[in-house]
Amino acid sequence: MYDFIYHRPGTVRQAANLFAKNADAKLIAGGHTLVPVMKQRLAAPPHLVDLSHIEGLDGIELKGRNLVIGALAKHNDVATSSTVAEAIPALAELAALIGDPAVRHKGTIGGSLANNDPTADYPAACLALGATIVTNKRKLKPEEFFQGLFTTALEADEIITKVSFPIPRKAAYVKFRNQASRYALVGVFVARLPSGVRVTVTGAGGDGVFRVAAFEDALQKRFASKAIDGLAVSPDGLNSDLHGSAEYRAHLIGVLAKRAVDAANARA
User: Fold this and answer.
1) How many domains are there within the chain?
2) Looking at residue 94, what DSSP letter applies?
3) Is 190 helix (H, G, I), strand (E, B) or coil?
4) CB atoms within 10 A of CB 21
5) Can you give the pTM of this predicted structure?
């Protein structure tokens, strides 16, 4: 690694000030994205602002009809939380599928969302459930927060503090993962909310997480896997690489969407 100055703020305000005042500074929580990139000398931030010691950002609680998860909650915290399992079991199952035990015990939900990796799992949950991403400055809906590959609406001095998930009537997440990285080759989150049905896809989109309107319309009329028989996702704009062609990913989206609907109905 290159030399850098390490900062350990005690509050979100201190962290935001440090981040804003130091040019090219990077925030770090679990470090599962930034540290490997630094080791490979693909990034050399002169300042690191460590959020992991700020108290009060790792809570998990129910507030009315919303499940609120602090930005520093680790994937394993979400996966093993009885509160999450009772309120949104699909979210607990999603967290349990992230990486391996080492990743789940260190990586955080806020870090995952801020990084917005196109193969990450949490963006699919946020978009499907209509979550609210809360920062030290404002509240953002997923449609405005996610802005493309590794790109979000976060400003220079803006830090995610928590995520508020509305509790769905039914939901499930099914993932076909790369066996080496355990990232989603394709992941589909289906949620039946009081406001309607949402179907979101991660891992496949050339521009990151996205919704499948045709599936949503069909499932809104009848929430059963047979409702999307005969429907297909176009491979145009989907990722194509050595792990799978765009056509293969398009096929997987349909298969996994049906499995997710069946899983959601089985839980009811």
Assistant:
1) 2
2) H
3) strand
4) 11
5) 0.95
Question: Could you tell me if 186 and 203 are in contact, meaning their C-beta atoms sit under 8 angstroms apart?
Answer: yes
Query: Looking at this protein, which amino acid is placed at residue 235?
Result: P
- The answer to whether 71 and 140 are in contact (CB under 8 A) is no
55 located within any domain:
no
Kindly report, residue by residue over 105-135, the tens digit of the pLDDT. 999 999 999 999 999 999 999 999 999 999 9
One-letter identity of residue 246:
A
Looking at the structure, tell me whether residues 23 and 100 fall in a common domain: no
Helix axes 89-96, 122-129, angle to 10 degrees: 160
Reduced to 3 states, what is the DSSP secondary structure of residue 120?
Answer: coil
Domain interval for residue 220 = 60-267
DSSP for 167-208, please give it.
PPSEEEEEEEE-TTT--EEEEEEEEEETTEEEEEEESSBTTS
CA end-to-end span of the chain: 50
Q: What digits encode the pLDDT tens for the residues 180-208?
A: 888 999 999 999 999 999 999 999 999 99
Does residue 121 share a domain with residue 40?
no
Q: Are residues 18 and 85 in the same domain?
A: no
